[in-house]
Amino acid sequence: MTGSDCIFCKIVHGDIPSAKVYEDDKVLAFLDLSQVTKGHTLVIPKKHEENVYELSHDTSSNLFQAVPKIARALKATYGPVGMNILNNNGEEAGQSVFHYHLHLLPRYGKGDGFGAVWHDHSSKYSGADLEEMAKEIAAKLY
């Protein structure tokens, strides 16, 4: 999908309305229509970049500078007891809009509409396994 076909690019350009929470020259934040929890906000770079693998240093820096400001505003406004910050990259990970975005999901306790399931696989990996995995990953950093 190109920027011209992208729903989030259309929101950035004002072609589609949104309930804006925050905007500067590089970042836009607006309420997600689904409102999984009250205040559920999407934070996007204005520049079209598909996923975390494509994010430039400047884009990620600008985006992540805005996130704490928005999260603090959500906390001050609605008083959640916690906050999930969620990002899906690729269709298999649940990405449905292929313009990088973060979900800020204020949490209000069990039964608030959002739940993540984590499985503990620590028994499958020894300390040596983890060290080897860390070396393999570190060798690919660029």
From TrEMBL:
InterPro entries (alphabetical): HINT, Histidine_triad_CS, Histidine_triad_HIT, HIT-like
Q: Which residues cross the membrane?
A: none
Q: Where is this motif: Histidine triad motif?
A: 99-103
Q: Which residue range or ranges hold the HIT domain? A: 7-115
* Parts forming coiled coils: none
Q: Which PANTHER family does the record associate with it?
A: ADENOSINE 5'-MONOPHOSPHORAMIDASE HNT1, HIT FAMILY PROTEIN 1
Q: What is this protein called?
A: HIT family protein
Q: Organism source for this protein?
A: Evansella tamaricis
Q: What is the lineage of its organism?
A: Bacteria, Bacillati, Bacillota, Bacilli, Bacillales
